[in-house]
Each structure stands twice: as structure tokens, then as C-alpha cells.
Amino acid sequence: MIAKYRDKVKTLETQIDSVIKEEEAEKTIARAEIEANKAIKMLEAKKLKKKNKKRAAIEQRDPNARVWFQTHKDRADGMKYYSIGARGRCRVSD
User: Fold this and answer.
1) What is the C-alpha separation between 12 and 77, in angstroms, rounded?
2) What is the C-alpha separation between 51 and 38, in angstroms, rounded?
3) How far is residue 4 from each of residues 8, 9, 10, 80, measured CA to CA in Å?
4) Does the predicted TM-score (pTM) go above 0.85?
């Protein structure tokens, strides 16, 4: 009777060892993912900080200055293209 259970324990022992190794591998992968996410967040924060520094520098020069998404030339071309009529309507010029 004892021999029967000893054999069962031996067969289960190899399975248990493999499960333990898999769990250790999963923990290692989880730690690596956490570190990767942390690095990504740090890089994004660094980019945002750099962007905010640039905006702050512009505001320091002229606090009333607007931040444009277009270049000066693009804005001028847009004003020519969408000329505003006497009634305040937009006219598209050809």
C-alpha cells in the first residue's frame, strides 16, 4: 500500500517541478513587462516635459502669443483661399 502511494508521489513530483518552473518563468515575464511599461512611461513623460518646456519658452517671450498648428505661410494661404465676404460668409476663391 505504501509503495503504491510512493509511486504516485514520484509521478506527481515531476509534474509539480514542471509547474513550479512554469510559474517562475511567468513571474520573470511579468517583471519584464512591468519594467518595459515603466520605461515607456518614463520616455513619454520625458517627451511631454520637453514639449511643455518648448511651450513655456514661447510663452516667456510673449505671454499673449498663441501657439499655432500651422506655419505662418499656411495661415496666409488659408486666408487667401477662404476670403470672407461683406456678409461674413466664406467664399472659396479659385
Assistant:
1) 77
2) 20
3) 7, 9, 10, 93
4) no
Q: Rounded to an integer, what distance in angstroms lies between the CA atom of residue 94 and that of residue 91?
A: 10
Residue with cell 460668409: 89
C-alpha 33: how far from its chain's center? 14
Q: Which residue has the cell 461683406?
A: 86
Backbone CA torsion sign across 36, 39, 40, 41: positive
Give the angle 75-67-72 at the CA atoms, nearest 5°: 25
What tens digit of pLDDT does each residue of 28-63 get? Answer: 999 999 999 999 999 988 888 887 777 776 666 665
